[in-house]
Amino acid sequence: MSGTVGAVGPASRRRLGEPIPEASRYVMARLDRIRTWSLSPAFLVIVGLGFLFTFYDIFDINVSFVQTCVQLVPGCTPESALASLPLPTLLNLVGYVVGTLVLSPLSDRIGRRNMLLITMLITGLGSLYTALAGDYVNFTISRIVTGIGIGADLAIVNTYIGEVSPKQSRAKFTTVIFIMSALGAFFGIWLGLFLTTAPEPWPAGLPFALGLETGWRWMYAIGAILAVIAIVLRFQLPESPRWLLQRGRIAEAEKIAAAMEERAARRNALAEPTLEGVPTHWPPARSVPYADIFGNPVYLRRMILLFFLWFFGYITVYAYAAGFTSVLTSLSFSPPEAGVVAAVGTLGFVGEAIVMSFIVEKLERRYWLPVATVVTFIGAVIIAVGGQSLAMDFIGAILIFAGFNLWVSPTYALTAENFPTRARSTGFAIVDGVGHLGGGIGIMVLAPLIPHLSVTWALLLISSFLIVASVLAQFTVHTRNRVLEEVSP
Asked: Is 184 helix (H, G, I), strand (E, B) or coil?
């Protein structure tokens, strides 16, 4: 990059913004030489706890909605619950869009940490509202409120992790955080099975399941408690030093950078910081972060490509994440049996996240989507071939849950890397937040079709949208092991 910010294109080279103070450039050079996680390990857990709650909320509807529907929707039965699932799921994702588009840009203005507190507060209030909902209308509205918080939280967490991680391992630490997401999904589905289904002999159900009449309400009450814990712990997080530098708060950024250097030096000697490759001028920033995306042809192209990637990918993700149990029930599995298959499937999610934390940096981000697609299809075929064999269903479900989640964490990293620091949360919000509509629309379109299809065609149809996302991913830019300001000045 040779000291300029011209990697985006000729227009940027002709329109340099304000010079970057030498002190800021030196802090950036010091940050770029760090090659390991250099904040407290506890901060990974703190940020991850927010992800745990977020994915707990995404997946807790999977098993518990059958009971919710029977209690709140007149005439609803376990076999017909799938017909009532699309509306709250779609509006929950509409909440994602509203929340992420309104709140995420504020983190580009007032800071990552401050907004992480606000988004978790909104999410927790939404979960509490859901627990107290007295009818289907209030249940649906409560899912909108929860979605507003979750949508923004996803964007800001991934932005934050990308900015405080070393360039060699941004995807790795995004995936480490994603392990907590997997645990959230695991607890969400297993608690749903434990609290909302009747006891059945294993493996057709859980022999010790409680089957509480208010089990689904306890699911969301627990989510509200998790949100309170996450809020308290997030007060300890430091601000992103890269964001501080762009806001001219050099002394604060230097203090955080010094603490990061001290921790990193305990593991390995640090190289001397060099200003070579560090930009000399800030790119011209607009007063509204959206203008930095829509007003720059490069970022606009990236935004459109990534939006459609997420849109199609989320059709598969949400059909499985929110509706797998309802899909299986509509295909003649009993509710406890369908819940057990989904619950066992979450083991694949947890195992995938752990394995990926070790290998995710071995490949460029865009190559993981085709791998995920193949694994998901193999799982779908195994369930289709296995029929009523629970052993085969378990193996297939594990592979499905591993596959449809395998691509998410590297693509989170890729998305954050594709936008500049001054508008990184905003860019992530647009493509990931609005892209979530793919999940809702997909369920709305797929739900009426599923009961009329065989297990084979139902699962293959749901999985097929990952093929489109995989093709789109191949047109994204190379970001692995590159400085953020070089990829996205």
From this structure: helix
Alpha-carbon distance of 241 to 285, in angstroms, equals 18
Give which of 244, 364, 281, 380 is closest to 324, Cα–Cα: 380
Q: Six-digit token pair at 289?
A: 């972060």
The b-or-e profile of 131-146 (16+ CB within 10 A means b, else e) is bebeebeebbbbbbbb
**Tens of each residue's pLDDT in the chain, 489 residues:** 333 333 333 333 323 468 889 999 999 999 999 999 999 999 988 988 878 888 888 788 878 888 999 999 999 998 888 888 888 988 988 898 899 899 988 998 899 999 999 999 999 999 999 999 999 999 999 999 999 999 899 889 989 999 999 988 999 999 999 899 899 989 988 898 899 988 988 877 889 999 999 999 999 999 899 899 999 999 999 999 999 998 899 999 999 999 999 999 998 889 999 898 888 887 776 667 788 899 999 999 999 999 999 999 999 998 887 778 777 887 777 778 888 888 899 999 999 999 999 999 999 999 999 999 999 999 999 988 887 788 898 999 999 999 999 999 999 999 999 999 888 989 998 998 888 888 888 878 887 787 787 878 888 888 999 999 999 999 999 999 898 888 998
Q: Quick one: tokens of 473?
A: 């991913």
Q: How far is CA 463 from the centre of its chain?
A: 19
In angstroms, the CA 195 to CA 199 distance is 10
**Could you tell me if residue 223 is left (phi over 0), alpha (psi between -120 and 50 degrees) or otherwise beta?**
alpha
Distance, C-alpha 374 to centroid of its chain: 21
Nearest to 433 by CA among 229, 286, 290, 324: 290
- With beta carbons less than 8 A apart as the criterion, state whether 286 and 295 touch: yes
Could you give all domains of the chain from N- to C-terminal order, each with its CATH number?
Answer: 27-268+287-487 (1.20.1250.20)
3-state secondary structure of 281: strand
Q: How many CB atoms lie within 10 A of CB 434?
A: 19
Residue 237 CA to residue 42 CA, distance in Å, equals: 9
Of 216, 73, 226, nearest in space to 149 by CA = 226
Indicate the residue type of 86: P
